[in-house]
Description:
Number of domains: 1
Strand content: 5-15%
Order of helices and strands: EHEHEHEHEHEHHEH
Largest sheet: 7 strands, parallel
Radius of gyration: 17 Å
Helix content: 40-55%
CATH topology: Rossmann fold
Structural class: alpha/beta
CATH architecture: 3-Layer(aba) Sandwich
Strand order of the largest sheet: 3-2-1-4-5-6-7
CATH class: Alpha Beta
Amino acid sequence: MKIAYDISGKTALVTGANRGIGKAIVEALLHHGAMKVYAAVRNPDSANPLLEHFGDMVIPVHLDLTIPESITALGDRAPDVQVVVNSAAIFKTSTPLDARAIDALEMAMKINVYGLIRMAQTFAPILAKNGGGAFIQLNSVASLKCASNFATHSASKAAAYSITQALRELLARQGTAVLSVHPGLIATDMSSTAGLAGTAAPPSVVAEGIITALRSGDFHLFPDPMAQRIGNAYRSFSENVIEADIEEYRAEKQ
């Protein structure tokens, strides 16, 4: 089910585009030949540095993943999109035993999972109309490995990863490449908040990895050294279970 994709000459949309990994993805897309990028952020003014650097190749647009109408409006604003990169997320942390665990998980699910579903529902028809394209979801190694102090975040990312697997199967039917990105320790505000030990890789590692993975038709990307260790251990399971055609999982024909 590999679908290779080249972003050269394409129109892309990146959520969470004003900083960190999202900003690096915008820069990499344009560096590798994308024609135009919609930079989707809650405050369009926060994307001004990208606008100043790239001119009219960047179009700042409003998006709030907690507001369904905002996502629908974005679909109307960007009907020419061929590549969607859903990078926006929230890092809402709690252990399962904290009194605030349910509140933290509800907020994480609202943005990291419900936001993903609504983005897919809005843009899958647009991608189909524009030739198939690609849908890239920023998940995390936290979707595979849970640490007790940010269990609610891991739970939301595990759910997002499950949805991404479903999107791979569903969107392949319309010729859309789907890529699940699982960064580990990246030099962003989110990693700093997590308090993870080790040497963080720059966001550009994720951005460049996305370009390469799309060209290869890969479903998973483990871009940085920490993620690669986990990805190497996970590879056999992924090939034989996640990416495999398991007969018992096939829906019966109606």
